[in-house]
Task: inverse folding
C-alpha cells in the first residue's frame, strides 16, 4: 500500500433528476412535489470518493473509515468490496454505532445540497489509526474533520495528535476539509485556532475556497482571494495549499521555505526545487455535467496520484482538474474516473478548458502548460520535461 485514505465515510443516496427541467422547476418549495428517477446508492465521503478514485487511477490504497454494525454499515462495506475485496479489509466496525448517510440533491445545473447524518464518524479518533494501518505507506490523507465531532473539537488537538504520529513514521500528510453547518457545534468552533494547531503537521492542504474563506473569515480584513487565503495558510504551517475553485478550476501555492518541503520530498519522489515557491491556477476542463458529487475529492485523487508519480506542479494541477472533470460526467462520485493512462492521454490530447472569470491582475497565461502563473510563481520549470516523463 502506498497511500492511506482515512476519515469520513457514509452511504450516499442520490435521486436522479430528469434532464430538460428548468432550475425553477427544481426548487424545493413547502408542500411541493418534484418527480425524480431511480435513486443511486453509493459510498460517499473522503474515504470512499478519494480512496476509490485513487484505486481506479492505479494507486494501491488502504481505506480507513468507521461504520456501525447496522444495515447502512453493511451496505457501505458491501459497496467497497464490489470495487475490490481488499478495500473493506481495514474498515472499523463499531458495535452498536449508527452509520453515516447522506441524501445528495444534485439537480442538473445547480450545485449539490446534502442532508447528512454523521453517525460513527463523530467517534473517529487518533487511536483508531494503528501502526499496521500505516505499514508500507508513503502518504496519509485525511478528510472532512468539520463533520467528525472528535476530530473537529478541542481546537484541533486530536487531529494534530494523529498527524504527529503519522509524521513520526515517515509518511507525508495531506488534509481535506468539508463545509460547515452554521447551526451545528462545528459552526461555533474557532477554526482559525484549529488551523493554527493542525497545519504545522500538514504537508498538503486541499480545502475548497468557500470552505476555507468561511473558516478564516474572523481573521480576514477584506474580501477573500485565493492568494490571500493561501498565504495565510502557509503562514500557519502548511507546505503547499491547493484551493478547489469549483467550476473555475484549481489554485496552487507552495512555501518559499525549502526546509519545510524536506519531509514531503523524502516520503514522495518530488524534486523540492521544482515545488518551492510556486503559484498557479488551472481552469477546469470542459465536460457535460451529470452531477457534481465527489468532484473535489476526485480532483484531490488526481493531484495526489500525480505526486506519487513524481510529476511537477503544472502536471499535478492538470491531473487534478482532469480527474475532477471526469468525475462530474457521471451522477455518482467515482464511476467516471478513468485509468491513470487514460487520464493522462485525455489531458495531452488537447482537452478543451473553460474560461476563467476570476480577475487575475498581474498573472500571465502559459499557453504551453495551459494555466495561469501568479505574480508569486518562481517559474522554475524542470530543465526539461524529460525528467517528469520518466517519473510518470
Result:
Amino acid at each position: 500500500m502506498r497511500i492511506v485514505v482515512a476519515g469520513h465515510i457514509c452511504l450516499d443516496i442520490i435521486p436522479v433528476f430528469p434532464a430538460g427541467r428548468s432550475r425553477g422547476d427544481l426548487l424545493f418549495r413547502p408542500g411541493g412535489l418534484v418527480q425524480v428517477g431511480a435513486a443511486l446508492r453509493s459510498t460517499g465521503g473522503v474515504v470512499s470518493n478519494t480512496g476509490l478514485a485513487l484505486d481506479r487511477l492505479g494507486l494501491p490504497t488502504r481505506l480507513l473509515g468507521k461504520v456501525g454494525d447496522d444495515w447502512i454499515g453493511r451496505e457501505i462495506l458491501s459497496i467497497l468490496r464490489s470495487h475490490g475485496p481488499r478495500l473493506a479489509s481495514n474498515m472499523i466496525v463499531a458495535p452498536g454505532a449508527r452509520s453515516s448517510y447522506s441524501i445528495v440533491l444534485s439537480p442538473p445545473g445547480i450545485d449539490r445540497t446534502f442532508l447528512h447524518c454523521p453517525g460513527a464518524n463523530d467517534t473517529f479518533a487518533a487511536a483508531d489509526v494503528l501502526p499496521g494501518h500505516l505499514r508500507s505507506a508513503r502518504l496519509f490523507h485525511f478528510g472532512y474533520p468539520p463533520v467528525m465531532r472528535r476530530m473537529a473539537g478541542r481546537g484541533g488537538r486530536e487531529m494534530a495528535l494523529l498527524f504527529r504520529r503519522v509524521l513520526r513514521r515517515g509518511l507525508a500528510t495531506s488534509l481535506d476539509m468539508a463545509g460547515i453547518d452554521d447551526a451545528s457545534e462545528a459552526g461555533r468552533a474557532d477554526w482559525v485556532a484549529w488551523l493554527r494547531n493542525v497545519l504545522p503537521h500538514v504537508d498538503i492542504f486541499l480545502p475548497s475556497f468557500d470552505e476555507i474563506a468561511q473558516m478564516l473569515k474572523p481573521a480576514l480584513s477584506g474580501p477573500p482571494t485565493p492568494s490571500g487565503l493561501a498565504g495565510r495558510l502557509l503562514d500557519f504551517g502548511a507546505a503547499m495549499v491547493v484551493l478547489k475553485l469549483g467550476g473555475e478550476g484549481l489554485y496552487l501555492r507552495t512555501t518559499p521555505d525549502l526546509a519545510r518541503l524536506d519531509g514531503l520530498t523524502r516520503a514522495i519522489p518530488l524534486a523540492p526545487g521544482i515545488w518551492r515557491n510556486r503559484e498557479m491556477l488551472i481552469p477546469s476542463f470542459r465536460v457535460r455535467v451529470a452531477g457534481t458529487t465527489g468532484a473535489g475529492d476526485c480532483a484531490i485523487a488526481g493531484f495526489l496520484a500525480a505526486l506519487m508519480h513524481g510529476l511537477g506542479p503544472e502536471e499535478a494541477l492538470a491531473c487534478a482538474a482532469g480527474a475532477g472533470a471526469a468525475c462530474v460526467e457521471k451522477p455518482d462520485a467515482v464511476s467516471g474516473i478513468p485509468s491513470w493512462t487514460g487520464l493522462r492521454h485525455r489531458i495531452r490530447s488537447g482537452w478543451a478548458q473553460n474560461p476563467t472569470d476570476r480577475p487575475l491582475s498581474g498573472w500571465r497565461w502559459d499557453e504551453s502548460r495551459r494555466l495561469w502563473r501568479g505574480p508569486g510563481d518562481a517559474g522554475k520549470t524542470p530543465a526539461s520535461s524529460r525528467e517528469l516523463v520518466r517519473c510518470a
